[in-house]
Amino acid sequence: LKEVSKLSSGPVKQKVTVNVWRILLVTAFLLSWEMGVKYKAFDSFYISQPSEIFSDLTNLFLTGKILPHIVITLEEALLGLTIGTVAGVIVGFVLGKFKSVAQVLDPFIMALYGIPKLTLGPLFILWFGLGIKSKVFIALISVFFLTFFSAYNGFKNVSPALINTVRLMGATQGQILRKIILPSCVPWLLNGLRASLGAALLGAIIGEYIGASAGLGWMVNYASGMYDTTRVLSLIVILSTMMTIMNGGVTLLDNRLLKWRASAE
After folding, report:
1. Whole-model pTM?
2. For every residue of 193-230, which 3-state class applies, written as one string?
3. Residue partners of 136: CB distance under 8 A and separation at least 6
């Protein structure tokens, strides 16, 4: 029992230590920032100060002004993430299955991937208007390629010997897909999903920045035009928090789906 408690307490203690160091670093950074502005080492016009940002955040949430904009941006990002992920996985598996098709389409896919997504924003606004569709499409395009490459590489890295073995044992194509291919691709897909979170949120923000009447991107654009540094930094804090929460959700999903990997270690 003592040995078991030692083994279990080791990772817990390390996690607590890491969290304490994180808190200390953030606290030291914020105090240095606050004191630097207070004693005129930094110009608050350009970087504001933590106390002002905290006050602005408190006002935004207490008045409820920020909530509709958060909902709009989240809806755009999550729709783009969902559709882009599904499309990327399907196309990745299809091209992984039919290698000749993948060879034909490879240069075209890379050419499309190389187009800066920011340049597509005005086109999507023109095609789909200033509503939610244009923002979803920008987020979708950003997510699609990240998911596609993850799914395609995951499919290519599935062991052919394992597939041939279960096929000889009488497994159908559907069983091979469900029992071998998809489980083997899960780590790749989760890595793609983790990268896609930021891409989806960024795509929604870019769309709102180019043309919108609501959303966090619109608020950032408006605050920038008014030279309101405090509001811009408050919105950056909100976006960072949203990203952290979404990433935490993927981490929980990772731990749940890959329990076998943790136990093997």
Report:
1. 0.80
2. HHHHHHHHHHHHHHHHHHCCCCCHHHHHHHHHHCCCHH
3. 76, 79, 80, 83, 204
